Amino acid sequence: MTSQEGQTFTGASKYVLDSELAKIINISMALEMPLLLKGEPGTGKTMLAYAIAEALGMPLIVLNVKSSMKLVDSLYQYDTLTRLNDSRFGDSNRNVSNIEDYIRMGKIGQSFTTDKRVVLLIDEIDKADTDFQDDMLDVLDQMSFDIQEIDKTIRAQCRPVIVITSNAKKDLSDPFLGRCNFHHIAFPDADMMRAIINVHFPDLDENLAEATINTFYRLREFQNIEKKPATRELINWIRALTMDPDFKTKDLVLGSVPYLGVLFKKSSDHQQATRQVARLKR
């Protein structure tokens, strides 16, 4: 079920996307190129990979990039400790002379060795150093890598659909950018946010929907906030409000903002928001 077979991605049960994003996803699958997604946290970059996997009926493999990660760890690991223990204690069914029994595939390796096409999400690539980024794309271009310990080349059985995300905290190299298709996911405007909320809360009262979205965007304009609330926080905030039997929509209209802790997760942000909400109510 790929775009090459006449299938296109138009969204998933809980994911709303614009036509431009749908086009770049489908052309990336057709060209078999990685899709690089940039945007501030909370714009749905990571969830897009989940949505593609859901809509196209593909398994999802997620590589969460860490600053200390080495490329080889995402390809495979040689479990020397287990082999040493097996050789010392002899209580394993594995043949200690066969090193291949102690090779474990990393996330990229898993996406190559599966017998069905998968979606490979490489999340927050900007955390890695430039060498990791460029070497990783060499592997993804060639769809193969070598396991030095057993002198064996692993070749992809099926080319995965590759989604790479970046929070744009660090510039990516020109060679890296040149080998990807690119899309910047802007934070949803009020109309798009309303469509997203309608997907998650199809029976939400119209007045409450309008009040929560309007309040949400006002809160995002507060000064000196390090981590602005994102779509996930808005959804959880609406859940909290609808579960509170004492909450009234008019409270929001009058400037009261309950459950600020659902929207602002950092202590300094919560304190700033509390002070600024109090000033607005005066």
List the helices and strands and how they pair.
Elements: H1 19-31, E1 35-38, H2 45-56, E2 60-64, H3 71-75, E3 76-78, H4 80-89, E4 103-105, H5 107-113, E5 119-123, H6 130-142, E6 144-147, E7 152-155, E8 161-166, H7 174-178, E9 181-184, H8 190-200, H9 206-220, H10 231-243, H11 249-253, H12 260-263, H13 267-281
Parallel strand pairs: 1-8, 1-9, 2-5, 5-8
Antiparallel strand pairs: 3-4, 6-7
Helix pairs in contact: 8-9
Mean of residue pLDDT? 90
Fourth-level CATH superfamily of the largest domain: P-loop containing nucleotide triphosphate hydrolases
CATH C-level class of the largest domain is: Alpha Beta
CATH fold type of the largest domain? Rossmann fold
Q: Structural class of the secondary elements?
A: alpha/beta
What is the helix tally?
Answer: 13
Distance between the termini: 57 Å
Order of SSEs, N→C? Answer: HEHEHEHEHEHEEEHEHHHHHH
**Portion of residues within helices:** 40-55%
The count of β-strands is 9
In spatial order, strands of the major sheet run 2-5-8-1-9
Please indicate the percent range of residues in DSSP E strands (runs of 2 or more). 5-15%
What's the gyration radius in Å?
23 Å
Give the total of domains: 2
Biggest sheet overview: 5 strands, parallel
Weakly predicted, low-confidence segments? 1-5
So what's the overall shape?
elongated
Proper CATH architecture of the largest domain: 3-Layer(aba) Sandwich
